[in-house]
Specification:
With 287 residues, this protein is of the alpha+beta class. Helix content is 51%, strand content 14%. InterPro entries: FP_C, Znf_FYVE_PHD, Znf_RING/FYVE/PHD.
């Protein structure tokens, strides 16, 4: 085998091979010292490369370094861009959080103002209702008297009061228009609240029917109740629905006050408005 440099034959003792290009030559032709080659470990000798290959490898390495440097610079730019975006996001997030905090504070204020307005409106409505109810202090509402042709409502209420043995001075009476087959309720004004109270107590005690007044009438019961305002009537109906569902046995009115009681051994509660009705569900079971 000939040396690539001098083209002369290469003997084993002088031979060296490039690990990259596999070129064979004399070690001295590649400017290597004899002692250096003699002391060179086998692994090192097997990895030896000629100058041409070293130049190529260095060039290749430099290119690789240049590429890696470029990649690092690109990565650095990306990281900086991400950092800038995060910084901008942080600023925007802080602004949004501040706006949300402000909105929450404004909402809390609105809720408080709304609650205050609701309370004030309820107070005003209650005050108006008390005035309206005051005008109905001597009025009663009679249900169960059949409608008759050309009837005199004052005379009918007089008949009923006589049947109940209650002395009354009927100042006025009329029948409210209704879609009911029985003809609707009769509204009557008495001379004072005592007469009203006596009539209501008597009808509850005697449980008088229409047939007991006139034999040609049916046997349905006659009811006498306080004449309530529309506000109180609606509140009473709601109270009946909720209180019955909660197991209250007694639901009644006294002097236009709506009263409820679980049973005869428990406390009496007064329902004045919607708020009292909402609080009703918080009443303990044993009360």
């Amino acid at each position: 085998m000939n040396c690539k440099k001098c083209l002369n034959t290469v003997i084993k003792e002088d031979k060296i091979i490039c690990s990259e290009c596999k070129t064979v030559g004399h070690y001295y032709c590649f400017s290597l010292n004899k002692n250096y080659v003699a002391k060179m470990p086998k692994t090192t000798k097997n990895k030896w490369t000629c100058n041409d290959c070293k130049i190529k490898l260095n060039k290749k390495n430099n290119q690789q370094v240049s590429i890696e440097k470029s990649n690092i610079e690109s990565l650095a730019e990306s990281v900086q861009c991400i950092y800038n975006n995060l910084d901008e996001f942080s600023i925007k997030s802080g602004r949004i959080l501040n706006e949300m905090k402000l909105l929450k504070e404004q909402n809390t204020l609105l809720i408080k103002n709304n609650e205050k307005l609701i309370t004030e409106v309820q107070f005003i409505n209650s005050k108006i209702d008390r005035i309206n109810q005051k005008s109905l202090d001597e009025a009663i509402k009679v249900k169960g008297i059949p409608l008759t042709y050309n009837e005199d409502c004052k005379s009918l209420i007089n008949e009923l009061s006589n049947k109940l043995n209650v002395t009354c001075n009927i100042e006025n009476a009329y029948r409210k228009k209704s879609q009911e087959k029985t003809g609707g309720k009769i509204i009557a004004w008495l001379s004072d609240k005592t007469e009203k109270k006596n009539l209501i107590s008597a009808i509850k005690r005697d449980k008088t029917t229409a047939k007991q007044l006139r034999v040609e009438w049916p046997s349905n019961k006659i009811y006498i109740n306080e004449h309530l305002t529309i506000f109180k009537s609606v509140l009473l109906n709601k109270t009946k629905t909720i209180a019955k569902a909660m197991g209250f046995e007694f639901i009644w009115t006294d002097n236009a006050d709506i009263l409820i009681r679980k049973n005869k051994h428990t406390k009496i509660y007064r329902i004045r408005n919607e708020m009292d009705l909402k609080n009703l569900i918080e009443i303990p079971e044993n009360l």
